[in-house]
Design a protein that fits this description.
By secondary structure, this protein is of the alpha/beta class. Helices cover about 40% and strands about 15% of the residues. It is built from 13 helices and 14 strands. A hairpin with a 5-residue loop joins strand 5 and strand 6. Helix 1 packs parallel to helix 2, helix 5 crosses helix 10 and helix 9 runs antiparallel to helix 10. The longest helix is centred in the last third of the chain and has 26 residues. The C terminus is likely disordered.
């Protein structure tokens, strides 16, 4: 077996009070600056399990998006939580698992602002040098010797304050990051997953609605650059920067839980649409009743976009929360893989048609592994999802959970399945997994990882006890908040001063 080369983790949502990796103080309250038992247990078990899979070249840690909960949590809270993560990372290095000091960061929707900051830095640098200053929409795809990548200055600054971590660098790849073998017959593409989700392509949807086409026609193929150019500002504004947006940010906290209830999400979306329209009026001197196209006003257009994305997205989440992958999910994956990903591969001189292609993403908070036929590609794509580390709502659902995806030097993949929501108090034991197809027989990484997990079963049993306890504690806290009688009071949307409206439980009304 080739040695381990990449360790991929996503959706930690550090800083969020609903993250299982945010610390808890001695009184049982969420405290981002406190040590998290679950994170400690995870790092202990990883150190012992992954070290035998490595050689003299240390593997690269890939932070695959939504590592920071910048969308809903204030920056100082996020920074405290990330510092605690860094301290555990330092301990991991001290325990014998050497990781490369070069950490790869692939931002997601909740930490998209990391990419926005890098865009601004690149723009300023180009302008200062006198070069044409176009705003970059993406990085190159493939890692190769001699290629430079934008630095994530915020994470580097935080690491520089921690003893023993001053050598760390954080290099951004966005929205996709790729690896290819020497023969260019096998490739891995990594993406957080938000652009697979139509909710985060709302501006593209708006453009589509302005262009006549047959009813029920699939979305037109778009390049990665087009997707980001149209939707990046939307993602950054609504999903990655509201933690620092004052009252609106406070009203947005726990958005996912709010969206479990149809009435609450509708009220919230109406409140948001009014606020966006007012911002447009204040900053651009645009009237809410000003007509845009065919008599549609600014207010109507904004409300329509919010309804088409937030409300419909909330409806889909309520309907499909207990399902691992829906037919629509699979269709969106095929759309992204068969369009944006294959186009980007071709732009870098790689023909994906008969390639052994693998795709790693997170975002859904539901880990899985499978093979997916994609039109235009001869071979099915091996798809791995890294899941997430949050309690989205108080009802335990078995599809929700987290995994770490490992990649070896031959670009074999294996999923370290860490946990699923503890339904009835039980979570599956930590285990190694491939796609569950005959191709696993030719995958030595799955076998090696399985043996390593078994050899350190005691460490993983301790981790499982910690994560189950954390999930149950967070679920109790959510229930206490959701069913507070004061939640029945206001009708102007959620706030931190009042408990959030009741959520839908088990798909029904609360």
């Amino acid at each position: 077996m080739a040695a381990l080369r990449h360790v991929c983790i996503s959706d930690l949502h550090l800083g969020a009070d609903y993250s299982l990796l945010t610390g808890i103080d001695g009184a049982g309250h969420v405290e981002p600056g406190a040590r998290c038992e679950t994170l400690v247990a995870l790092m202990d078990a990883l150190a012992s399990t992954l070290a035998p899979l490595c050689d003299d070249e240390p593997p690269t840690l890939v932070l695959l998006g939504d590592v920071l909960d910048m969308g809903l949590s204030p920056m100082n809270t996020v920074s405290q939580a990330f510092r605690m993560f860094l301290r555990e990372l330092a301990r991991l290095r001290n325990q014998g698992l050497r990781l490369s000091p070069r950490i790869r960061v692939v931002p997601g929707n909740h930490d998209h602002h990391l990419w926005r900051m890098a865009q601004d830095q690149t723009f300023v640098s180009r302008a200062r040098s006198g070069a044409d200053a176009d705003m970059p929409q993406m990085t190159t795809l493939m890692d190769a010797p001699g290629r430079s990548w934008p630095s994530c200055e915020l994470l580097a600054a935080l690491a520089g304050t921690e003893p023993g971590l001053g050598d760390l660098s954080f290099e951004l790849a966005y929205p996709n990051f790729g690896l290819v073998d020497a023969a260019r017959r096998r490739a891995v593409v990594l993406h957080h997953g938000h652009y697979v989700d139509p909710m985060y392509r709302a501006m593209s949807t708006l453009v589509e609605h302005q262009t006549p086409r047959p009813p029920h026609a699939p979305p037109r193929p778009l390049t990665v650059e087009q997707i980001e150019a149209r939707n990046g500002a939307w993602v950054d504004f609504l999903w990655s920067d509201l933690g620092n947006a004052g009252a609106v940010g406070l009203e947005s906290e726990k958005l996912y839980e709010i969206m479990r209830d149809a009435g609450a999400s509708q009220r919230w979306s109406q409140h948001l649409a009014r606020w966006i329209t007012e911002r447009l009026g204040d900053s651009l001197d645009v009237s809410a009743v000003m007509p845009l196209i065919q008599g549609v006003t600014v207010q109507q257009a904004v409300s329509g976009v919010v309804d088409a994305t937030l409300v419909r997205g909330a409806e889909a989440q309520r309907r499909d929360y207990r399902r691992l992958v829906t037919l629509d999910d699979a269709a969106q994956l095929r759309w992204y893989l068969g369009g944006a990903v294959t186009t980007q591969l071709k732009s870098e001189g790689i023909d994906p048609q008969d390639m052994d292609l693998r795709f790693v993403y997170g975002h859904t908070h539901k880990p899985f592994q499978d093979e997916l036929p994609v039109p235009g590609l001869v071979r099915p794509v091996k798809v791995y999802n890294t899941g997430g580390w949050v309690m989205d709502q108080p009802t335990m659902t078995s599809p929700q959970g987290a995994a770490i995806v490992l990649i070896d030097g031959d670009l074999n993949l294996a999923s370290l399945r860490l946990f699923n929501d503890p339904v009835h108090g039980d979570s599956p034991a930590v285990h190694a997994a491939g796609t569950g197809t005959p191709s696993d027989r030719a995958n030595p990484l799955v076998l090696a990882l399985d043996q390593a997990v078994a050899h350190h079963a005691g460490d993983w049993e301790h981790f499982t006890r910690c994560v189950v306890a954390a999930a149950q504690r967070h679920a109790r806290e959510l229930l206490d908040e959701f069913f507070d009688p004061s939640a029945c009071g206001g009708d102007t949307g959620p706030s931190r001063q009042h408990a959030r409206p009741p959520v839908a439980v088990n798909g029904g009304s609360a």
